[in-house]
Design goal:
mainly alpha, 73% helix, globular
């Protein structure tokens, strides 16, 4: 994290870091389905709530429709991503959070 950024900017930076980690893993393992989902919404166009919500919704759809393509570590990383998105959006009732916790 960069110390002079706001808390929100640091959270957005953390989202980018998580997505880059997933991108690297899915490229290395040639896991094309999750990679296609990620590339549909990342890199973020901007740090606004619409872009962040699109990322959350897309990753929720990935977990819902293609959970078999994810290993345990990746599922954990997606849960971390959901937590970070919830912090930014201030909303713990979105579909991504429900899927991550249940």
């Amino acid at each position: 994290m960069i110390p002079y950024l706001s808390e929100r900017e640091n959270a957005v930076e953390h989202i980018h870091t998580i997505c880059l980690r997933l991108f690297d893993s899915w490229c290395e393992n040639r896991n094309v389905i999750p990679l296609a989902y990620l590339m549909h919404c990342w890199p973020l166009i901007n740090s606004g709530p619409i872009s962040i919500r699109r990322l959350a919704d897309t990753m929720w759809e990935l977990r819902k429709f293609h959970a078999e393509t994810l290993d345990g570590d990746e599922s954990g990383v997606l849960c971390d991503l959901a937590d970070c998105i919830d912090e930014i959006l201030g909303n713990s009732f979105g579909p991504f959070n429900i899927a991550a916790n249940g």
